[in-house]
Amino acid sequence: MSSSLLKEPREIDEIVYRFLEISDFEKGFSECLQQLTEAKFTKSQFIDRYSELKKQPDTYFIVVAEDLKKKKIIACGTLFVEKKFIRNCGTCGHIEDIVVDKTYRGKNLGLRIIEQLTHIGKKLGCYKLILDCSDSNVKFYEKCLFEKKGVQMSLYLPMSKL
Questions:
Q1: Which CATH number do you get for residue 68?
Q2: How far apart are CA 56 and CA 53, in angstroms?
Q3: Residue 157 maps to a domain
Q4: Count of the separate structural domains present in the chain
Q5: What is the pLDDT of residue 159?
Q6: Nearest to 30 by CA among 50, 13, 7
Q7: For the segment 53-112, what is each residue's pLDDT rounded down to a tens digit?
Q8: Rg (the chain; Cα; Å)
Q9: pLDDT, tens digit (0-9, with 9 covering 90-100), for 23-57
């Protein structure tokens, strides 16, 4: 992934915003995600999934914030780009898995992650960006210029091994 897709500035107050790297497993990527939902995985699982995503460089964009002093991942978010037939075979961006480490909340890190993902979506020509969130996070996303629209529905399926 080209770092030219990222919005400037990429480093603020010893915090760098960049794309996920293979070395981020050791920097607490899983621990950061676990503050959002169940996200325990082994290094081997991380490497396998990371390699899978890298094979689709125009589809998955995972941005992390790293505290350079602590060498720790302190925030992250994902933009998944869906290729559509509608809108003249356009692309729609899905923002997922936004989380900020609890000890860093209130410092606009989530806002900066959303800004990075929005910037990437614009540069890639997405006609819209969508995300799901809990009612308690609506005000945050409204500050990020998202508007409440429609209703989210979910069907959770049992995990199966192929």
A1: 3.40.630.30
A2: 5
A3: no
A4: 1
A5: 80
A6: 50
A7: 999 999 999 999 999 999 999 999 999 999 999 999 999 999 999 999 999 999 999 999
A8: 16
A9: 999 999 999 999 999 999 999 999 999 999 999 99
For residue 78, the number of C-alpha atoms closer than 13 Å in the C-beta half-sphere is 16
Is 134 part of any domain? yes
47 in any annotated domain: yes
User: Could you tell me if residue 113 is inside a domain?
Assistant: yes
Confidence of residue 150 (pLDDT cuts 50, 70, 90): confident
By 3-state DSSP, what share of the chain in percent is helix, strand and coil, each rounded to 5? 35, 25, 40
Dist CA 148 CA 132 (whole Å): 10
DSSP 3-state of 137: helix
Provide the edge-to-edge strand list for the sheet that holds 15-19: 11-12, 15-19, 60-67, 72-83, 91-100, 128-131
Q: What are phi and psi of 115, to 5 degrees?
A: -60, -45
DSSP letter assigned to residue 72: E
Domain, as residue range, for 92 = 3-143
Q: Where are the alpha helices (DSSP H) in the chain?
A: 29-33, 43-54, 86-89, 109-123, 138-143
